[in-house]
Design brief:
Elements: H1 7-59, H2 65-76, E1 79-81, E2 90-91, H3 97-110, E3 117-118, E4 125-131, E5 136-142, H4 150-189, H5 205-252, H6 259-285, E6 294-297, H7 298-311, E7 316-319, E8 325-328, H8 330-348, E9 353-359, E10 363-369, H9 404-414, E11 418-423, E12 429-436
Parallel strand pairs: 7-9
Antiparallel strand pairs: 1-5, 2-3, 3-4, 4-5, 6-8, 9-10, 10-12, 11-12
Length: 438
């Protein structure tokens, strides 16, 4: 599973990682330079007091030892007995760092390996046997003496602080990146098909101002598009009416004038009508609301697309897997491939045209490959411009209106498909439409 490549995810990961590294470094420093020295010093003080108490008890007269034991218990919470506290006391099974420090201090002072023990009763003491001249004295301190656990407390503080800081960081990052995500989504819709959702003009002043400007910009773009459509629609309407009258006049003149001239006028009128229709089609592409998405079996669509051409005697070689289902705008794909096939068959001069479907991991690619003369490399992108033709003479016998590929490119962009042209190695042109599936 790939980590999300979003601004929120990347910023959160960076800040969280930096904070965790800082907290880990802080924990190491605190443990090494504060907790560890304090623990060692505390163990040293307790070991020194207990060894000194044992030596003092031995040197005292027998009749004063009882008073010394009471004073030791009251003032220092240390018990001193001359007999083993319990016959079943056992060695500590788990040593805390403090106990290890304490045993090490006793071993240094007594010159022999010494261990701390605990009795089996619940409210027992920890005991140390300190050998004296002729006997062993047992000194004990209660569990409460080491109830404080600085390492555990420090760990809990660091974990709690880390969690609190990370959650706070995520909240702050989210508050910053969410408006940016909304802005990115708004930019994707900018100047689109009229489905732009105005951005909320709230939040920090800088982002609110940016959202406000973006909303204003979209309004201006939509206004320009509407004006362009209105202008082209008016031109179309104003021209088609006289064209219709001219057709009628020509029909009335049949047999009275030069038939060749009348035929040429008729052809010119048809060319003008076609040009106007294509121009209006380009304008309408950006305004159309016909974006129906449906389940389409691509191999079957290609077969249906090639069938009419084959009935006309054209040779189309279909290369396709048995099955490939996509959810897309079938009408738009049909129009694109139909235009590409028309061009390929025209420039191939009745030679074979290949219609190939390639299924990739994250996309589907449909290519129309002809055996025509191809297109100069420096003009592969220019042919998508409105009214651009490879033949500068504008002769209709050597090309169309110059709007076919413009319409195809706009249809592809509206549906988020990628249309590319490339010359084949030996001869001909390959026109491919790539559709992302993920």
């Amino acid at each position: 599973m790939r980590f999300p490549n979003t601004l929120f995810a990347r910023t959160s990961l960076t800040l969280s990682a930096a904070l965790l590294v800082f907290m880990l470094f802080t924990a190491i420093v605190v443990f090494k330079y504060f907790i560890l020295p304090i623990g060692k010093q505390g163990a040293n003080d307790l070991a020194a007091l207990m060894v000194l108490s044992a030596k003092t008890w031995v040197e005292l007269p027998a009749d004063t030892r009882k008073d010394f034991e009471l004073e030791l218990a009251e003032n220092h919470n240390i018990k001193l007995v001359s007999v083993q506290p319990e016959p079943d006391y056992t060695e500590l099974l788990v040593h805390s760092p403090y106990m290890l420090f304490l045993e090490d201090e006793f071993s240094k002072r007594l010159g022999d390996e010494t261990h701390v023990y605990q009795t089996s009763s619940l409210n027992s003491h920890y005991w140390v046997g300190i050998p004296m001249a002729e006997q062993t004295l047992y000194l004990g301190f209660p569990h409460s003496h080491i109830d404080a656990k600085p390492p555990r407390a420090a760990l809990m503080i660091f974990l709690g602080a880390s969690l609190f800081i990370i959650l706070t960081t995520l909240l702050i990052v989210r508050r910053i990146t969410r408006p940016l995500s909304d802005l990115a989504a708004g930019v994707q819709q900018l100047g689109g098909d009229g489905q732009y959702q105005p951005l909320l003009e709230d939040g920090p002043e800088e982002l609110a101002q940016l959202s406000r400007k973006l909303n204003q910009l979209n309004g201006q773009i939509q206004s320009l598009l509407d004006n362009r459509t209105t202008l082209l629609g008016g031109i179309s309407h104003d021209l088609r009416t006289p064209l219709a009258r001219m057709r009628l006049a020509i029909e009335l003149l049949q047999g009275k004038e030069d038939p060749d001239l009348l035929q040429q006028i008729q052809l010119d009128l048809e060319d003008m009508d076609t040009l106007i229709g294509r121009t209006l089609e380009v304008a309408n592409l950006m305004q159309t609301s016909d974006r129906r998405i449906e389940e389409v079996e691509i191999p079957l669509l290609l077969q249906k697309l090639a069938a009419p051409y084959e009935r006309q005697g054209k040779t189309i070689k279909l290369i396709s897997p048995d099955s490939c289902t996509l959810h897309l705008n079938e009408l738009a794909l049909n129009r694109i491939l139909g235009n590409l096939l028309d061009n390929a068959l025209y420039y191939s001069a009745d030679q074979e045209v290949i219609l190939q479907l390639q299924v990739k991991k994250m996309s589907v690619k449909i290519c129309v490959q002809d055996q025509g003369p191809g297109i100069p490399e420096d003009q592969l992108e220019k042919v998508f411009q409105p009214f651009y033709r490879l033949d500068p003479s504008r002769n209709r016998s050597t090309g169309g209106t110059g709007l076919g590929l413009t319409i195809v490119r706009q249809l592809a962009e509206i549906n988020a498909w990628q249309l590319t042209l490339a010359n084949r190695e030996n001869k001909g042109l390959s026109a491919c439409i790539e559709i992302q599936t993920e």
